[in-house]
Amino acid sequence: MSDLKKLVRTIPDYPKPGIMFRDVTTLFGDAQGFKAAIAQLTEPYRTEPIDAVAGIEARGFILGGAIADRLGCGFIPIRKKGKLPWKAIGQDYELEYGTDTIEIHEDAIKEGERILVVDDLIATGGTAEAAIKLIRRTRGEVVGAAFAIDLPELGGRSKIEALNVRCHVLMAFEGH
Ligand code: AMP
Which of 49, 102, 135, 171 is the most exposed, having the fewest neighbouring CB atoms within 10 Å of its CB? Predict the structure, then answer.
């Protein structure tokens, strides 16, 4: 775990003052690191039946696609508003200033399908919460949520676990 943590680049004050941006491109770019991250993210779900991984744009696509391949299941993209080509349903979520919207294809999930949510990082949990709501609105069952990085001070993990979704994270960083 600490080896993987060393592969994450921290960029202070990006994209704005006060934010410590945890850049996973350096982890993804390291062959052994990327392989280990995918293996560790996949591990708890090897024995669980999962129909699809739902990855959150954009870094959740990179991790989620590889995890879906390892699990032998499908992949569903959850995208920023206006990007999906077919009929989509949207869910708003709060940002520090204002709101944003993510979308899923309305026919991406069949009733009762078991879905694993994947993103690179959980901060306040607002994005992952919106993804869980979208999956539940399309009548999927959320069986877990996996993130490479947790920022525990922002409380996102507790927010997601309060929705009865167990989280799996590989590493934690202090601060925002
Ligand atoms: P949140 O909705 O607050 O949990 O934010 C999670 C989303 O914002 C993820 O898709 C992350 O990629 C991105 N994000 C939030 N904070 C950071 C950070 N400090 N470094 C890198 N990405 C971040």
Answer: 49
Domain count, the chain: 1
Q: Which listed residue (9, 79, 94, 96) is catalytic?
A: 96
CA distances from 2 to 53, 135, 149 (A): 26, 33, 12
CB-ligand 1 contact for 22 (6 Å cutoff): yes
Structural domain boundaries enclosing 99: 47-172
Return the CATH number at 52: 3.40.50.2020
Mean pLDDT, 10 residues at a time, over the chain (176 residues)?
89 94 98 98 98 98 98 98 98 90 98 98 97 98 98 97 98 92
Catalytic residue among 22, 46, 57, 59: 59
Distance 90 CA to ligand 1 centre (A): 19
